[in-house]
Design brief:
Layout (H helix, E strand, L loop, with lengths): L14 H9 L11 E2 L8 E2 L5 H9 L2 H13 L14 H16 L3 E8 L3 E12 L5 E8 L4 E12 L17 E6 L8 H9 L4 E6 L22 E3 L2 H11 L6 E13 L4 E8 L6 E7 L7 H20 L7 E7 L15 H10 L3 H4 E6 L11 E5 L5 H13 L4 E5 L11 H5 L5 E6 L5 H4 L8 H4 L3 H19 L8 H11 L7 H31 L5 H26 E3 L5 E3 L2 H18 L3 H8 L13 H8 L20 H13 L5 H42 L6
Parallel strand pairs: 6-7, 7-8, 8-9, 12-13, 12-14, 14-17, 15-16
Antiparallel strand pairs: 1-2, 3-11, 4-5, 4-10, 5-9, 6-10, 11-13, 15-17, 18-19
Helix pairs in contact: 1-16, 2-7, 3-7, 5-20, 7-14, 10-14, 15-16, 16-22, 17-22, 18-19, 18-22, 19-21
Length: 721
């Protein structure tokens, strides 16, 4: 046999000729058609003409088993009033017990439960009591944030601080008092900045009314409290906040006496649990299916629905007698919603500890991973999303596409700019070299906009669609089984290099060397994708006696694909100071664009226009909104020990001093802007240096990956010499 996996493969393809074929998607598995039930598409999804293995899997789905797990998990909570099964808490431990039992019932083998490093948080409840103007007493239940706060019938004063900005403190004293603030969905600063600012002002604790769209006056909502560990914070509903403000309007000195109770504890490195079990395969490869079992509030949909769907898939595979080529490992992680105190990126701690500390050896044998953590089957939700790295876009859109096209559901396929989504376990897996497909709601709204991390994340509030729930089982089970049919990881590196090129369009500073290297790598990536496609198709039709030798040859190839995938993440995966997952140079590039505009406007004498341009820099929107000490705190966070460590290139662009100088010139009517022009030039030079350094790293990464692709084409997938 030649050095090709399945006979000769002609590699004289031109990349341009391949584009249409590859954009259409991966065709390496034998897809057939899927038809909904003829009489009532909403009742069930009937699969016809799929492989016998898949038909047996679909027929074996036990939705009562899955739903029981979902309901059991969502009933568990350390706070009887609001729920909360959080990292390292007693409630999370009880949830882990349920998961372990379910794994056994699902027929998994080698079930393991082990500790993973994470900070622990237990929220056992909080409330505020007050007397209204008629002397009637009221109690308002509060929700939690991952910060420590203890109070028992504590008499304290409450002050209304509006949106919690510096200007909202004028004429108010919050020392030792409760600060009531509002955070709107449109506020660029989220919850962390106003909470931290209130702590600097001496507030006893901060009561946050965080808005969601659409509004629900009774809803408690706890969006991520990023970068704060020492200031107590709790959430309050809109109706609770309005009731307090009605009394505050009549209160003497604008302060209201209240009775405060709270029980929230945080323990550094308290630990969480990760559980897993296997459906063993014939070969050394592993497909990972992952989900989280912790949650804020009742978290019926994120994460109970997703985790229970993952276990339901496991049971159906076992019950149907499915024997995979690759081991399919089902992993349930704690500390998914939070597990790193004071971090800007505190979620995903359990998954990160598991793959980076407990079992880094899993990476090289990992074929791919599927995260089923958040595919929320809420009532009337027909729009869903699937996220994936660019390299798997073609494969997933075809694997899932035909199932979706004949269903009642609309799915959108997302490949975020950097191929990483910061709100899932993408970083935890991809940074270790494992491409991960993630379930999720559609980005246009629905679940994330109105239910996630809130007291409305329950069947009672959101309703339940059993058909969507079942379809999620079918969809992610199918993707896993289609991946199992592949001999070689179905990765299309041409797509990620094309995305890199598109992100640098119009930026001459990137240099011809990087652009040229990316063009060359994109061409080679397309060629490799076609060769992988051909090899996978050959494998599907190969005689049984040839398969072992093909599998042995594929082991080294898949290991090299792992190195290429990881190398691209090492070279290009980054985070911006605005909380976005992006290519590593994206934040610096945006700063450069904003600073160029500001400099040019200053040179034209347009000081107001320059201020507007500078607001697009890293912390520009926050300049003057919060104090310098607060901005310094957030700019100085390094996220050591988390999946985000080292991923934000350079220190934050600090334009607030320049913005203050410009504002003073505007107020004074001073047209002399030469010092400010020089200041903009200095900031621009600094950002340009950061950008150039990142591009140099990217150039080396692109060249190395292109070289590895060349090696694969020659050593594994090339023509016989």
């Amino acid at each position: 046999m030649s050095r090709s996996i399945a006979g000769k493969t002609s590699m004289g393809f031109a990349a341009a000729a391949l584009c249409a074929q590859l954009i259409a998607g991966f065709s390496g598995c034998a897809w057939q058609s899927v038809l909904p039930a003829a009489e009532d598409p909403g009742d069930s999804i009937v699969v016809s003409e799929f492989s016998s293995e898949y038909r047996a899997f679909e027929a074996a789905l036990d939705m009562d088993f899955s739903r029981e797990i979902m309901d059991e998990l969502s009933r568990i909570g350390d706070d009887p009033a609001t729920g909360f099964r959080t990292s390292g808490s007693a409630a999370e431990g009880r949830a882990a017990d349920i998961v372990e039992r379910a794994m056994r019932e699902a027929g998994l083998s080698g079930i393991t439960r082990e500790r993973a490093a994470a900070d622990a948080w237990t929220f056992a409840g909080a409330d505020l009591g007050y007397a209204d103007r008629r002397g009637e007493t009221h109690s308002i239940a509060l929700g939690g944030y991952p910060v420590a706060v203890a109070a028992e019938d504590e008499a304290v004063m409450l002050v209304d601080l509006g949106r919690g900005r510096l200007e909202d403190y004028e004429g108010k004293d919050v020392e030792g008092k409760l600060a009531l603030i509002d955070v709107a969905p449109s506020d660029a600063w989220g919850v962390g900045y106003p909470v931290y600012q209130a702590g600097l002002m001496g507030a006893r604790a901060v009561i946050v009314m965080a808005g969601m769209e659409p509004e629900n006056a009774a809803r408690l909502y706890s969006p991520e409290l990023r970068g704060v560990s020492g200031t107590p914070a709790l959430s309050i509903s809109a109706e609770g906040a309005e009731a307090l403000r009605n009394e505050l309007r009549r209160a003497e000195n604008g302060e209201l006496p209240v009775i405060f109770n709270a029980d929230s504890t945080v323990t550094e490195d308290g630990g969480t649990a990760v559980l897993w079990g296997d459906i063993p395969g014939r070969t050394d490869g592993v497909i990972y299916m992952t989900g989280g079992y912790d949650g804020l509030y009742r978290s019926a949909f994120e994460s109970a629905a997703g985790l229970s769907a993952m276990l339901g898939i496991a049971k159906a595979m076992s019950d149907s007698g499915f024997v995979p080529d690759k081991t399919i490992r089902f992993i349930a992680c704690g500390a998914g919603e939070w597990g790193a105190s004071g971090s800007l990126w505190g979620w995903g701690a359990g998954a990160w500890a598991q793959i980076s500390q407990n079992h880094p050896e899993w990476a090289e044998s990992a074929f791919a991973a599927i995260n089923v953590d958040a595919s929320p089957p809420i009532a009337k939700q027909t729009r869903f999303g699937v996220s994936m790295p660019h390299e798997l876009y073609g494969f997933v859109s075809v694997s899932a596409g035909q199932l979706v096209e004949s269903s009642m559901y609309n799915f959108s396929w997302h490949a975020p700019e950097s191929g990483l989504d910061p709100v899932t376990d993408y970083f935890s897996w991809a940074l270790q070299g494992i491409p991960l497909v993630s379930a999720g709601p559609d980005e246009s709204g629905g679940y994330r906009a109105a239910y996630r991390h809130s007291s409305d994340d329950s069947v009672e509030a959101a309703g339940f669609d059993g058909d969507a729930y079942r379809f999620g089982h079918m969809l992610y089970g199918k993707i896993a089984m289609d991946l199992d049919d592949c001999l070689i990881r179905p990765l299309d590196f041409g797509r990620v290099f094309a995305a890199l090129l598109a992100s640098l369009e119009g930026e001459p500073a990137a240099g011809a060397a990087l652009t040229g290297a990316l063009l060359d790598a994109a061409d080679k990536g397309l060629e490799l994708a076609a060769a992988i496609d051909k090899a996978n198709m050959d494998y599907l039709t190969a005689p049984d006696d040839l398969r072992p030798s093909m599998e042995a040859m594929a082991f080294g190839l898949n290991r090299e694909l792992f190195r290429i995938f990881k190398g691209l993440r090492d070279g290009f995966a980054g985070l911006t100071w605005r909380g976005e997952a992006a290519f590593s140079y994206s934040g610096a590039r945006r700063n450069i664009v904003a600073l160029r505009q500001a400099r040019d406007m200053l040179e034209d004498g347009d000081a107001e226009g320059a201020l507007d341009a500078l607001r697009a820099t890293d912390m520009g929107e926050l300049a003057g909104v919060f104090g310098q000490e607060a901005l310094d705190h957030f700019a100085g966070l390094d996220d050591a020990g988390t999946w985000a460590e080292g991923r934000t290139a350079g220190a934050a662009c600090r334009a607030e001093g320049l913005m203050a100088d410009i504002s003073r010139k505007i107020a004074d009517g001073n047209p002399e802007l030469r010092p400010e022009i020089d200041g903009a030039e200095a900031l621009l030079a600094r950002e340009q240096d950061i950008f150039n350094e990142i591009c140099a790293t990217g150039l080396a990464s692109a060249q190395e990956c292109a070289g590895r692709i060349d090696g694969l084409l020659a050593d594994y997938l090339g023509e016989e010499e």
